[in-house]
């Protein structure tokens, strides 16, 4: 599929031509393209009818996407119950995909590699991380791999059920295949588990993000700080995207050093009265940290589609209101110094005060 933006009806939010999609995975620049992978059920418009695949598309500008064949299918003994979320890294001209492989409830980490960015071969020694450490739990998923402080690092999302904490667990490696557990990188109290972490360079610092699942609801935590000797120290933290129609955001590094965020805009709460409940991906947002404030602005590739007003957003005395069909309206209360709105069909993304807060809504 080639979905191009047009003057009358821009298609800024990627979705596959057919089949369910959810979390963005393996976001990476490789051989002249941004590669966008995602959780995918290629034969069904709703989930849970088949084990998860990795869908695949590529783009040069986040305006025109070329849909490619699925990159990963659950066809190995260790991943027959799904190729779940993960990340990508480039080493010596080879694209490596790290993903959570699931078999009969056991979650582990597997690797696949490609030289052309289209055809992938799974590593014969999978899984490369077979099980969770004592600080974790069976909720052990979503490997986030990067090169940091002189070594390859893998951040795993998990939770400690006895202590009611969400945790990020740190591993290190010299070759991307043999991994050594290093301990807890970060944790949140009064939570069930974390999901979908990101760990990337941001200038001279590092950015660490995760979706934190609490007893009720979730928050998307983005922190910026230092990393040395296996420890991350936050200098600033924000929730950034308040949703409510946002989940599983992943941050990755563009070739020019920008930290870009893509999130899943879910369709599951609309099941039953939409013909296609497959959701879509957000526009790319550039994450910055200036004067201790973390912001998410529309990336320059899509910034020209930003407007100051839209009929679907109602300004109020104390903020704004976004009505949503069949569900509670999105309401913002607070000072508005600047407002940017990207509206694409039934998807709205609102950037408040230079991206200090983002509200994402399916109308």
Give a description of the structure.
This protein is mainly β and 363 residues long. It has a single domain, classed as Tachylectin-2, Chain A, CATH 2.115.10. Helix content is 0%, strand content 58%. The chain is built from no helices and 29 strands.
- Low-confidence segments, given as residue ranges, are 1-10
Order of helices and strands: EEEEEEEEEEEEEEEEEEEEEEEEEEEEE
What percent of residues adopt helix (DSSP H or I)? Answer: under 10%
Give the assembly state of these chains.
single chain
Give the C-level CATH assignment. Mainly Beta
The tally of helices reads: 0
Strand segment tally: 29
Domain module count:
1
Q: Output the structural class.
A: mainly beta
Might you state the CATH topology name?
Answer: Tachylectin-2, Chain A
Alpha carbon gap, first and last residue: 25 Å
Biggest sheet, spatial arrangement of strands = 1-5-4-3-2
- The rough form would be described as globular
How much of the polypeptide forms β-strand, as a percent range? over 45%
Radius of gyration equals: 19 Å
- Major sheet: 5 strands, antiparallel
| CATH homologous superfamily (4th level) name | Glycosyl hydrolase domain, family 43
Overall pLDDT confidence: 92
The CATH architecture assignment turns out to be 5 Propeller
